[in-house]
TrEMBL record:
Annotated signal peptide: none
Domain CsbD-like: 4-54
InterPro entries found in the cross-reference section: CsbD, YjbJ_sf
Organism: Corynebacterium guangdongense
Identification of the protein by name: Uncharacterized protein YjbJ (UPF0337 family)
Domain of life per record: Bacteria
Pfam families (alphabetical): CsbD
Region feature Disordered, mapped onto this chain: 1-67
Family to which the UniProt record says this protein belongs: Belongs to the UPF0337 (CsbD) family.
Length: 67
């Protein structure tokens, strides 16, 4: 579910950026870029968390197999 929210936030940021470019509104353009960066960072953190969970599950499985 977080991936969908992050993608929506990224798309909203892109829309703000474009609207800022079209209207020559630097504040809106920069706000859109910031929204995109924040969404991308959240997505990367989510990916890292999933990778850590996968590796810990894998290690736990190996430990349990040894019993």
């Amino acid at each position: 579910m977080g991936d969908i929210r992050n993608k929506a936030e990224e798309l909203g940021g892109k829309a703000k950026e474009v609207a800022g470019e079209v209207t020559d509104n630097r504040r809106l353009e920069n706000e859109g870029k910031a929204d995109q960066t924040k969404a991308q960072a959240k997505d990367k953190l989510s990916d890292a968390g999933e990778a850590i969970k996968h590796k810990s599950d894998e290690a736990l499985g190996k430990f349990q197999d040894r019993k």
